[in-house]
Design a protein that fits this description.
346 residues, Nucleotidyltransferase, domain 5, five-stranded mixed β-sheet, binds 5'-O-[(R)-(carboxyoxy)(hydroxy)phosphoryl]adenosine, binds zinc ion
């Protein structure tokens, strides 16, 4: 019955989790509010906030799990990818704990952990399964053969899906992170009102830069009346008014296009591999439109569909704990000279 203490600090969430024999007993997440005013994550501020948060978060995770630090069998931490300053805080903390407790250390790949978040619930996908991982920094289709054997079979060649949501939100004047707000406005909007192009990208790869550019051009000209037809761009006041009056339809139309790009490739991946246990993961899998369309597609193509519980979709340490648990069982430990890395191969 191994007890894993896991730490996640790859971006702007400081999180710690306790997992006993594959069951999550706690998952404490401190979300850094400091970035909101800057419209994006400021790396230096993120590192500082992790330093402030990490001890209270770990202490709270032990308390919630009713667990003594001395009973922990293994320390797992996010080694990569992410913001290097943020990762280093978690890595150094995990290594110090492992050293002082004389317990093994497990280094976890953040994107693999997003995939394995699907194995936390009672109803789990069977191996091999496919996972569409959609977050602020990544868009990937992963073929997961076992907890320790995964292959990226499709990924974005430019922006991530979350970035497409966040950048659209920024163009609409919404605060960061804009993804959840687009979701909120889209609920009451007409998704067929505006048409944004679907890119033609080979294989199982994705592209969102064309959609982003078409949204930018659309908004630059939004509300342009005949009065101003000689001007290149619509005047600011007209644009603002148009956005205000049409925000629900704009959000619904953009969201529908992002979803169709994602799900058409997922459908192709399932047909190519013959795999029907299919999962979503990552922050964007919290999107209500994506979840609904995913289940609808699953019903049509007879998939077994899985989405992690909401708290395991966005960045969290429980997914690091479950991955750490599998690596512990496989004896896949790291030495104390392991270090964090901003980018990482699979
Ligand atoms: O996985 P995550 O928490 O962090 C990364 O590893 O990047 O994903 C964050 C991303 C952000 O881009 C955020 O806007 C997006 O997930 N997101 C959403 C929703 N909730 C979070 N995007 C669309 N709809 C949502 N409901
Ligand atoms: Zn993430």
């Amino acid at each position: 019955m191994p007890i894993i203490l896991a730490i996640e600090s790859s971006c702007d969430e400081t999180s710690a989790s306790i997992c006993r024999d594959g069951n999550i007993l706690s998952n404490i997440i401190a979300t850094q509010k400091v970035h909101e005013q800057y419209g994006g994550v400021v790396p230096e501020l993120a590192s500082r906030a992790h330093i402030q948060n990490i001890i209270p978060v770990v202490t709270e995770s032990l308390k919630t799990a009713n667990c003594e630090l001395q009973t922990v069998d293994c320390i797992a931490f996010t080694q990569s990818p992410g913001l290097i300053g943020s990762l280093l805080v978690g890595a150094q903390f995990a290594k110090s704990l492992a050293l002082s407790l004389d317990k093994p250390l497990v280094a976890v790949h953040h994107m693999q952990a997003h995939v394995l978040a699907n194995r936390i619930a009672d109803k789990k996908p069977s191996f091999p399964f496919l996972c569409l991982t959609v977050s602020g920094g990544h868009t990937q289709i992963v073929l997961c053969e076992s907890p320790t054997a995964m292959k990226v079979i499709g990924e974005t060649i430019d922006d991530a899906a979350g970035e497409a949501f966040d950048k659209t939100a920024k163009l609409l004047g919404l605060p960061y992170p804009g993804g959840p707000l687009i979701d909120k406005y889209a609920v009451n909007g007409d998704a067929n009102r505006f048409n944004f192009p679907e890119p033609q990208i080979a294989d199982l790869n994705f592209s969102f830069s064309g959609v982003k550019t078409s949204i930018l051009y659309f908004l630059q000209n939004a509300g342009k009346s005949n009065l101003y037809k000689e001007e290149f761009l619509a005047p600011e006041a007209e644009r603002k008014k148009f956005i205000e009056e049409n925000i629900e339809d704009i959000c619904a139309s953009v969201q529908q296009r992002i979803i169709s790009i994602l799900l058409n490739k997922l459908k192709k991946a399932s047909i190519q591999t013959g795999i029907k246990d299919i999962c979503l993961a990552g922050g964007v899998s919290a999107n209500s439109g994506l979840r609904k369309a995913f289940y609808e597609m699953g019903e049509k193509y007879k998939w077994n569909c899985f989405i992690p519980a909401f708290e395991y979709c966005t960045d969290n340490a429980a997914m690091i704990a479950i991955t750490g648990y599998y690596k512990y069982l496989a004896g896949d430990f790291s030495s104390l000279d392991v270090t964090a890395s901003a980018r990482a191969e699979w």
